[in-house]
């Protein structure tokens, strides 16, 4: 025991000196009783991320049999404690010597697709949780398809409650096979299947003696080793958030375009286009924290200065002339409708495409997507939690990429102009360039 | 082209700067709520990175409970001056007089609940449409569910069931008249992340964060509370002098000290890695009152 704690201590302290600890954001999805909250509780508990006073609060509420209910670590709101369910997206954090993890806990109820979409929009990886006694069920398909739709490329199939099926290898193998059929059928990325028991801690952080036939990594070992976020492969994209103009005696003419590099890399001297105006210039300087640098990459927050005095304002994109996005006022998009007020064709809304905000209309709902089969169905409206393909027209052109090529420039939200509420998540699927014919990559159709 | 790699602090920093610039881009009259605590000090560093060589597009606003640690007030004034940014201070004392509020009684009279009144007054006075704060989701379970852009009604109330979905890194700050938005750029940071950032950026902090000798009263829970004129002591109170530091800097009547001889940020990080008691639990008396303490206060307009 002493040795163990020394080892633990030294691993925590090595975090102090270790150089690069990167970041992985993941979402957990499962049905109501799959033990999702317990799994997260177990990850926090076994990775020593729960402190004494939080444990004490838990123990005050512990079950009469003396076990600590780990699910209480994540079920934050009082209504949830009363109903024993998770009703909204919650965020939890833990750090190992290798990584910082941001967990998004999205609820599993049928009516809460919108929370799942919200959680998946920021995730690099999805843990799809199934109950070993039930295997792959309808909700498993739904969660998997939504996560894939939102562009997640790393999946873990966590087969939970292995203790309740006698840690039987055959049960696990059957479920893993069923799930592989699902991912093959929809041409999804391959999932890593891991048998575990969140309640008992088998294979969550530590490998379990109960599962001698399983030779793969524990869940945490796997989470520590999958590739993290990488935005550098896509073409360079940058949107202006704010124009810095000090107008002081020392800097009378300084104009800096502040924003976050959304993807790719910018270098001093790059020839760039400002969209939507189409004016060209050259990057005179890239500043990070007031220091000029030769180059900068996503996700760095930078200030760009241009050689020429062109008109640039918030919402404009500054992109390399050689690799411009599609500039369009008309596009096809997949929407997840998130409002209790249904969407009818002809509806006027605001599109918030990151820092660009423009008026828009939806002239047509093309079809509805069945989230269990991805089959297309006819639809003349969209209700809360529906996923639909629509045609969208905007009052001013937007500079977009298809979502699966670029999660940053291919995503937007729809906002109700009167209430200000976010009513839909939007994924750009096919953009029609009506102004210029500009070289873009081959169109990618969504193949699932 | 080499593939650049960024560590988690780089990513958290970039996210926070992006959020601050969204505030600047979306709102007419934002404010940065500045307490003199480490989280709000980190926010000012992030604001420098977001907006220099320009000025901050918002003033610093401090709601002064009158129970603050003097070291923190001195630090606040000095920081505002060295940044060259505008500082607005509004006192809970004045709100109590103006609104004829009752001072909390009891042995340790915390003015934390009254801060909300002053905050709402200052929002109304300057018509702030967005208030940036240093709250983090790891502090408490109810915070773990709050959005980065959190819309409040004109009474400052948070309705957890009516939260806007927050997708990708797109922040919707559109509000109706009377509403305002609380913005939390370091939502995704933990206490340890904040300290690692302070270390990396070499940020100066008020002295009370570091180990120092202080005369304290020992609470029944065993926690230590620094002696001040605002405490009402009983004869049988146990008074001790210990080497302590503060993990959070709030109202001095409800912010407990922890025993520590940590002299540097490195020492504090070591302390934290070994510590087994979370930040709010160690030092905040007011959250212990009920398990749903934070949720109730947030619903009522607290930060």
Description:
- The complex is a heterodimer of chains A (448) and B (303).
- Chain A is an alpha+beta fold and 448 residues long.
- Chain A is 19% helix and 34% strand.
- Chain A has eight helices and 23 strands.
- In chain A, strands 7, 8, 9, 11, 12, 13, 15 and 16 form an eight-stranded antiparallel β-sheet that branches. A six-stranded mixed β-sheet of chain A has the order 2-3-1-4-5-6, with helices on both faces. Chain A has a six-stranded antiparallel barrel with strand order 17-21-19-18-22-23.
- In chain A, α6 (138-149) links the parallel β4 (125-131) and β5.
- The longest helix of chain A is centred in the middle third of the chain and has 17 residues, at 169-185.
- Chain A is globular, with a radius of gyration of 24 Å.
- With 303 residues, chain B is an alpha/beta fold.
- The model of chain B is unreliable at 287-291 (pLDDT under 50).
- In chain B, α2 (38-51) links the parallel β1 (30-33) and β2 (60-64).
- Chain B has a six-stranded mixed β-sheet, with helices on both faces. Chain B has a four-stranded antiparallel β-sheet with strand order 8-7-9-10, with no helix packed on it.
- Chain B has two domains: 8-192 and 292-299, 3-Layer(aba) Sandwich (Rossmann fold); 207-288, no CATH class.
- Chain B is built from nine helices and ten strands.
- The relative contact order of chain B is 0.16.
- Chain B starts with 7 loop residues before the first helix and ends with a helix.
- The interface between A and B is large, with 76 and 68 residues.
Write the layout of secondary structure elements.
The complex is a heterodimer of chains A (448) and B (303).
Chain A: H1 2-17, E1 22-29, H2 36-46, H3 52-60, H4 78-83, E2 90-95, E3 99-105, H5 113-121, E4 125-131, H6 138-149, E5 154-160, H7 169-185, E6 191-195, H8 219-225, E7 237-238, E8 242-244, E9 256-263, E10 265-267, E11 271-275, E12 279-288, E13 291-293, E14 295-297, E15 301-306, E16 317-320, E17 326-337, E18 348-353, E19 356-369, E20 376-377, E21 387-400, E22 411-415, E23 422-432
Chain B: H1 8-26, E1 30-33, H2 38-51, E2 60-64, H3 70-83, E3 87-91, H4 92-99, H5 112-126, E4 130-132, E5 149-152, E6 180-183, H6 191-201, E7 212-218, E8 224-226, E9 238-246, E10 257-259, H7 265-274, H8 279-283, H9 293-299
Parallel strand pairs in B: 1-2, 1-4, 2-3, 4-6
Antiparallel strand pairs in B: 5-6, 7-8, 7-9, 9-10
Helix pairs in contact in B: 1-2, 4-5, 6-7
């Amino acid at each position: 025991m002493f040795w163990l704690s020394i080892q633990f201590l030294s691993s925590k302290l090595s975090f102090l000196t270790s150089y690069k600890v990167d970041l992985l954001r993941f979402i957990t999805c499962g049905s109501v009783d799959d033990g999702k909250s317990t799994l997260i509780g177990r990850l926090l508990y076994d990775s020593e991320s729960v402190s004494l006073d939080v444990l004490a609060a838990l123990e005050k509420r512990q079950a009469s049999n003396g076990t600590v209910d780990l699910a209480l670590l994540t079920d934050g709101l009082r209504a949830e404690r009363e109903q024993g369910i998770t009703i909204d997206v919650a965020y939890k954090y833990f750090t190992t010597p290798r990584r910082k993890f941001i967990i998004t806990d999205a609820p599993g109820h049928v009516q809460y697709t919108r929370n799942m979409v919200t959680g998946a929009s920021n995730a690099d990886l999805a843990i799809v949780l199934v109950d070993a006694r039930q295997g792959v069920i309808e909700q498993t398909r739904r969660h998997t398809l939504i996560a894939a739709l939102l562009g997640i490329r790393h999946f873990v199939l966590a087969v939970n409650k292995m203790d309740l099926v006698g840690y039987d290898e055959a049960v696990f193998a059957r479920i893993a096979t069923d799930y592989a059929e699902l991912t093959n059928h929809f041409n999804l990325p391959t999932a890593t299947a891991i048998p575990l028991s969140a309640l008992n801690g088998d294979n969550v952080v530590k490998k379990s003696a109960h599962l001698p036939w399983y030779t793969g990594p524990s869940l945490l070992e796997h989470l520590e080793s999958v590739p993290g976020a990488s935005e550098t492969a896509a073409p360079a994209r940058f949107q202006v958030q704010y124009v810095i103009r000090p107008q002081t005696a020392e800097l009378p003419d300084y104009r800096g375009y502040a924003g976050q590099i959304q993807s790719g890399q910018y270098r001093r001297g790059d020839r760039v286009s400002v969209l939507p105006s189409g004016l060209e210039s050259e990057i005179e300087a890239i500043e990070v924290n007031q220091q000029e640098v030769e180059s900068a990459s996503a996700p760095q927050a930078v200030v760009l200065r241009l050689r020429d005095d062109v008109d640039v304002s918030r919402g404009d994109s500054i992109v390399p002339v050689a690799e411009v996005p599609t500039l369009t006022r008309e596009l096809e998009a997949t929407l997840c409708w998130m409002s209790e007020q249904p969407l009818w064709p002809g509806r006027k809304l605001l599109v918030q495409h990151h820092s660009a905000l423009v008026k828009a209309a939806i002239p047509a709902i093309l079809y509805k997507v069945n989230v269990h089969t991805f089959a297309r169905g006819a639809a003349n409206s969209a209700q809360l939690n529906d996923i639909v393909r629509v045609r969208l027209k905007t009052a001013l052109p937007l500079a977009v990429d298809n979502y699966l090529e670029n999660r940053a420039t291919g995503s937007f939200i729809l906002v109700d102009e009167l209430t200000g509420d976010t009513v839909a998540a939007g994924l750009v699927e096919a953009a029609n360039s009506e102004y210029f014919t500009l070289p873009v990559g081959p169109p990618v159709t969504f193949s699932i | 082209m080499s593939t650049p790699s960024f560590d988690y602090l780089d990513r958290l920093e970039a996210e926070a700067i992006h959020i601050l610039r969204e505030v600047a881009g979306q709102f007419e009259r934002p404010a940065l709520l500045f307490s003199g605590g480490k989280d709000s000090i980190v926010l000012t560093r992030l604001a420098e990175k977001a907006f220099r060589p320009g000025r901050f597009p918002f003033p610093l606003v401090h709601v002064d409970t009158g129970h603050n640690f003097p070291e923190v007030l001195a630090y606040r004034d000095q920081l505002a001056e060295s940044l060259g940014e505008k500082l607005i201070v509004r006192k809970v004392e004045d709100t109590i007089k103006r609104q004829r509020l009752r001072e909390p009684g009891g042995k340790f009279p915390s003015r934390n609940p009254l801060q909300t009144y002053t905050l709402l007054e200052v929002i109304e006075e300057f018509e702030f449409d967005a208030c940036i704060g240093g709250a983090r989701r790891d502090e408490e379970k109810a915070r773990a569910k709050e959005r980065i852009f959190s819309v409040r009604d004109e009474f400052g109330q948070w309705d957890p069931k009516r939260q806007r979905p927050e997708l990708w890194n797109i922040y919707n700050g559109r509000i109706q008249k009377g509403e305002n938005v609380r913005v939390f750029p370091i939502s995704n940071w933990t206490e340890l992340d904040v300290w690692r950032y302070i270390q990396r950026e070499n940020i100066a902090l008020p002295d009370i964060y570091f180990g120092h000798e202080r005369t304290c009263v020992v609470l029944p829970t065993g926690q230590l509370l620094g002696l001040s004129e605002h405490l009402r002591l009983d004869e049988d109170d146990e008074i001790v002098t210990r080497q302590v530091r503060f993990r959070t800097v709030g109202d001095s009547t409800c912010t407990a000290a922890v025993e520590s001889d940590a002299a540097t940020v490195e020492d504090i990080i070591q302390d934290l890695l070994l510590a087994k008691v979370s930040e709010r639990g160690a030092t905040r008396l007011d959250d212990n009152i009920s398990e749903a303490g934070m949720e109730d206060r947030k619903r009522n307009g607290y930060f």
